[in-house]
Amino acid sequence: MSTQKAAEIAARLDRLPPSRTIWSMVILISLGGVFEFYDLFFTGYVAPGMVQSGLFKPESLGFFAALQPLAVAGFGTFVFATFAGLWVGTLVLGFVADRFGRRFIFTWSLIWYMICTVIMAFQTSGFALDIWRFVAGIGIGVELVTIDTYISELIPSQERGRAYAVNQFITFAVVPLVAFLAYALNGTRPLGLDYWRVVILIGSVGAVAVWFLRRKIPESPRWLARHGRVDEAERIVADIERRVTAEKSIVLAPPTPSAPEKEGRGTLKEIFSRDYRRRTIILSIFNMAQVIGFYGFAAWVPTLLIHRGIHVTASLGYAFVIAIANPFGPLLGTLFADRIERKTQICAGLFTMGVVIAIFSQASSPSLLIALGVMFTLAANIMSYAYHGYQAELYPTRVRARAIGFVYSWSRISAAFAGLAIGILLHGYGVPGVAVFIGMSMLVAICMILLGPSTKGLALETINH
Questions:
Q1: What region holds the Major facilitator superfamily (MFS) profile domain (predicted)?
Q2: Phi, psi of 443 (to 5 degrees)
Q3: Which stretches of the chain drop beneath a pLDDT of 70?
Q4: N or C: which end of the chain has fewer CB within 10 A?
Q5: pTM of the predicted model as reported, rounded to 2 decimal places
Q6: Domain spanning 2-463 has what CATH number?
Q7: Inter-residue contact 363 to 309 (CB < 8 Å)
């Protein structure tokens, strides 16, 4: 009964026209994600300050100093701790949003990493810094999974692509802010603190706003119906329908009947069943590959610029200019997100990233390096919103968060080791070595996506029937 009811609820949501009511939910969820992106992206911009503070000298790293023979230059342990925490959050705890609800986990995972990040900002050794970064990363990983799941289930199928583009436009808009703060505060000691500590604290304190945001975001009706809470789901959908009807001054068309999703227990084993095994393998390998380009550039851009002959202070300024491009990739995507097949957008972004990083590795002119950095960032963020939407579409409601967490977790562990690998490649082969590493990874990612199913304009229940 819950399966059929869930299909009816989904059909009612999918027939809703574009409206302020629907988009306000996307915006509110995205504003919650702003703090998570701030926390995730400050890594590259506070790196020079952390290194200058001496936190990554062998005597400060504890047992992490054993990585020093790998020529990671210390900071690689912080990158590793970040993504190791994200890996645990997405793989081990990705299921919690399937069990306890999207809204509940959306709130508490944000509070988790906010508290941990505040504690991290006051640590005085590289070892303690890495440990608290790892713990905070667990909360960030859970939040990433929950947001992707949340948006896919609340938004009508004909608007899902734009919803992810708008979501990432809003969340990526915080990246230039992080870059600007790092550039403007570099060399100062606000309130007697190192500038990088202040950069970290600003984002953490701002996350308190989530308590006000959560009150206006409903639980996913699809999730409620799948868990037998049909009356709650009915009330939420009826309220959304009432608001859309009043806003648009229309009578809603009857919902088109949707085939219900197959029954299942929603266990980890299910994502390896005959119906989903191929998707799980494809997306797992894709995630391992794509993140090497995406975060390999974003987390290391000031350092990459230094290795291309740019002074450390100037590199933060140039990195800020490049960071401005972050929200404009998804903004461009709003023009075609639901008109072009998701797979095509992902592959085009990956191909562009591979070509641009190859040229970047040979360039030395500051203006050319900035232009190439902007192009890489635009392509990466178009690819990003498209694949976040794509992987959320490929699994049924009962296991969506768990499945996203599993396949996404491979990008987290890959990024953790990629951070170490990039440190080694920079030391031994310079930026050209990093470019080859990223280019090969983009090729693998393209091959994986080409093997996946098409999803353009299809209801979630149709994709997973």
A1: 25-456
A2: -65, -45
A3: 1-2, 58-74, 211, 263-266, 298-304, 306-316, 419
A4: N
A5: 0.87
A6: 1.20.1250.20
A7: no
